[in-house]
Amino acid sequence: MHLNSFRIFNVFLIFIFSVVVNNNLPSLLSTSFYCIFYLFIIYLGIYYHKNSLFLIYFIYGLLLDILLLNEIGPHLLVFICTLFFLKYILRFLYNLSSIKVYLFIIFLQILMIFTQMMISYLLFDIFFNYINLIEIILLVLVLSYPIFLFFSKLDQFN
Amino acid sequence: MFRNKTNTHVKKKNYTSFFLSFLFILTFILILFNKTDYFLINKIKGVGLDYATPITRFISSPIQIINNITIRVNSIKNLESENFKLKEEVVRLKKWQTLAIKSSRENRVFKRLLNSTSHNIDIIKTASVINQSNNLYSKLVTINAGVNFKIKNNLAVINEKGLVGKTVFSSKNNSRVLMINDPSSSIPVKTLSDGSFSILKGTNQGKFLRSAFIKDSVMPKIGDLLVTSGNAKIFPRDILVAKVIEVKEDHYFALSYVDFNNLNYVQVVKSK
After folding, report:
1. Secondary structure (DSSP) of A52-70
2. pLDDT, tens digit, 9 for 90 and up, residues A52-97
3. Domain boundaries, chain B
4. Which residue in A82, A119, B37, B263 has the fewest CB atoms around it within 10 Å?
């Protein structure tokens, strides 16, 4: 089986997902892995967009909901809606400069996590924690650049 | 030839749009069923929990090993100072031991006189913690005992230090426990010193417990011990919960005896 970038990205995604849901790590480290998982998800949705991603997003969304919240909804809904949204704006994104796409990914990630927290609060009364959201925003800003450098290395496997 | 190709392309496109629409509708159906607590959703949750947990545990094991090594190295670094602390504690505990033996003897005699029965709890199962979710949403742990060990929802979970939480979901082989430091948990407690009742809830960061309701506004004192009152019919009476560490005008904060970041074995219990 030929190991292309898409498959390598998915291998990393499985590994990071496993760390996120199987957690005995210090809080900061576990939140970092959570942020990295989202960066992977969005990057795949933009640069490796294909229909099989819908199934991948569906499975990850469902499992994240079951394993992190014990309820089904926030992750699943946000993942599927994000992918549909990306499907329709992809042609505009490709016209943007790399820095704009980079900023768009960061913005989208924060928006996704914020929406999930809101849905969790509204649907399941799971407490909306502002401190966690601020922590996530700071972590995304710090982690995004090295992670994107890593992504650009992975892209070269194609 | 061209017609055949076009037909295949149209069929593929139709199939794809059907598949995407199906996934989109399925998402909403699952959310709707989840809210209505449908049998199917519990089945999906159970299957997800039973199959995903061992697989993800295996995949993430390198990170766990590195984390364990880091903890071990840190503990080795602090060995000397900890040894000194322990020596001091041993001296202090020896004094307590003499007192405890005396009290225990007295206790036994009093119990015989009153014809009282000991323990008010039934241990259903001792289980190990196999997974702890990150604290972004709910503070949940997964234990390796489920319906096959007669574990159902709303059973109290304790460990050697005190109350850990209650079961909120049980699959065939695993159960999920909502810890008491989760903001959505609610524990009826009483103060050991004066027997005043209150309700404790978790806080955002999960470090402390905060009083949500205090009966007759009788505030406890700093250092008071809080035990379960047995009012909610979920938690058996007299299980150690926390110690009061800060008292404000209309509420107080307590520190749980359980170290939620270091849970290994727990017991699922119910009232006798």
Report:
1. HHHHHHHHHHHHHIIIIIS
2. 899 999 999 999 999 888 889 899 999 999 998 998 898 888 888 9
3. 117-271
4. B37
pTM recorded for the entire structure: 0.82
Phi, psi values for residue B193, rounded to 5°: -75, -50
Q: How deeply is B38 buried, as exposed, middle or buried, from its count of CB atoms within 10 A (0-12, 13-18, 19+)?
A: middle
Chain B nearest-CA residue for A61: B27
CA B265 – CA A60 distance, rounded (Å): 29
- A125 Cβ contact partners less than 8 Å away, ≥ 6 residues apart: B184
Looking at the complex, does the CB of residue B70 fall below 8 Å from at least one CB of chain A?
Answer: no
Two tokens, residue A36: 């990295």
How far apart are alpha carbons A96 and A77 in whole angstroms?
Answer: 27
Mind listing the pLDDT tens digit for each residue in A21-32? 887 778 888 899
Q: Per the CATH hierarchy, to which homologous superfamily does domain B117-271 belong?
A: Rod shape-determining protein MreC, domain 1 (2.40.10.340)
B131 contacts A68? CB cut-off 8 A: no
- Closest CB to A34: pick one of B35, B57, B134: B134
